[in-house]
Amino acid sequence: MEDVLNIIRDETLTYQQQLLALARLAENMDDTLKRSPEYLQGQSEGIFCDLGEGLAPYRPRYICPDYTRLMECGSSFLGLTPPTDLLEATQALLIMYHHVPSITSFPVYLGNLDQLLEPFVVKETPQRAKQILKMFLLHIDRTLTDSFVHADLGPSATLTGELILELTEEMQCAMPNLTLKYDPELTPDDFLKRCALCMLKTAKPSFANHRMFTREWGEDYAIASCYNGLKIGGGGFTLPRIRLYECSLKAKDPQDFLDHVLPHYTQVMLEMMEDRIHFLVETSAFFKANYLVTEGFVKLENFTGMFGMVGLAECVNHLLHIDDPKQGYGNNPQADDLGAAILQRLSDLVAGYTSAYCDCTDHHFRLHAQVGIDSDGRENSPGARIPVGAEPGMLKQIQHAARMHGFFPTGIGDIFKFEETWLNTPEALGDIIKGAMQSGMRYFSGYLENNDVVRVTGYLVKKSELAKLDQHKQSLNNVSIFGQGARDKAKALDRRVEKLER
């Protein structure tokens, strides 16, 4: 088969990447899970995309284990007793990470690392703690070679958090992705400033609106993969997505889109999601036999379905006959009003569907602003973002994001690219992040324009690794190929550069 040979012949893929590519090819050739004629038609027209989940799902897409349980109880299946010092704690985590599946075959959530490790760090000398944490982070970067691998910090400041930030700057690793859970009452300004400076230098951490997420999920939530909000001890069953631009091509006008086109295609995708979840829960072995379930690291009732969408900007601009993106969504009150109306309609439609197994979200799915894939090109901007190249100034973009971010409990984010002079005033950036969170922005990411480590759509890559691919050499990071495609096809690295106002 030509597809198999193409993978085997590809000199830019490492052995592990070839293995995963061949496995995904097999998954996506399977036809066990039947799809409706309406879904198949929509998929052929580019309206639906299952993001490579295959047709015989055998593990949830995203899994967020309760790693606190590992610290307290160990794991019988893994032969691990509760750790007694920092070296044992980090080794136990590394062993467990190897046995946490996901759609990427790598763990998408590594835990709230500062909270998990702080009791052990404070027992060590600062030098010894830093040495062990450095080896821990190095092991993650070299073995969990996928930038959807994600860890969290905060909301409180800790010695562990300080050491991780220090090492993040020194090591300049793309893995793991990192988020600070920010709460103005719990996160000291000095720690916010410290995290903002680290973000400028390394493209991480990003900043999650802790108050917003806790209102929706409670205190025990995780930020996983790119920026996905999910329940700790659970996760996301599935994340397909609807391409709103392709949907808009079916509509006569905005009202027809809201009244007929969007409800039709939303219902088709909702039914497909429910079929996937039933198969995963009732037919696949994961929830019956996997040690994560049998030992209580995850529970069925803590999983939900994630209804993904992309291309809101292009959808709106098409419906309003706007050809110049700089005059459309994100820069035009009429376009923004229509965008908000579409999201409200979509949110109501998704909330109106009852699912058998999504206990933690009252048996409803939740909206997700999906970051996009390299094959989307420029026709479908990630989630509800303003298209690259059409961004207004940062403050206007934050105000726009604050209006849209509330619709997406399972994740949405915006990215800003900064010039070098921001390094001199991290407190100013900290104030902007604080204001953004207070205004209702859910998730804030950024990086310096001259960084090697950069944020693409939600994940991290190194520009030096992209250069290797350009020269037909191998890159250790599993998602460098996605970054190359997003750079070349969607101009994802050509964001507006935010200059420091003087």
Summed up, what is this model?
The protein is an alpha/beta fold and 502 residues long. The protein has helices spanning 2-9, 15-29, 37-44, 67-73, 86-97, 113-121, 126-143, 159-171, 189-202, 210-217, 244-248, 254-282, 286-289, 291-294, 312-319, 333-351, 394-404, 426-439, 463-470, 480-490; strands spanning 48-49, 62-64, 150-153, 177-182, 206-209, 221-224, 228-231, 234-236, 241-243, 303-304, 306-310, 366-369, 414-418, 443-448, 453-455, 460-462, 497-498.
SSE order and pairing:
Layout: H1 2-9, H2 15-29, H3 37-44, E1 48-49, E2 62-64, H4 67-73, H5 86-97, H6 113-121, H7 126-143, E3 150-153, H8 159-171, E4 177-182, H9 189-202, E5 206-209, H10 210-217, E6 221-224, E7 228-231, E8 234-236, E9 241-243, H11 244-248, H12 254-282, H13 286-289, H14 291-294, E10 303-304, E11 306-310, H15 312-319, H16 333-351, E12 366-369, H17 394-404, E13 414-418, H18 426-439, E14 443-448, E15 453-455, E16 460-462, H19 463-470, H20 480-490, E17 497-498
Parallel strand pairs: 3-4, 4-5, 8-10, 9-11, 11-12, 13-14, 13-17
Antiparallel strand pairs: 1-9, 2-8, 5-14, 6-7, 15-16
Helix pairs in contact: 1-2, 5-7, 6-8, 7-8, 8-9, 9-18, 12-16, 15-16, 17-18, 19-20
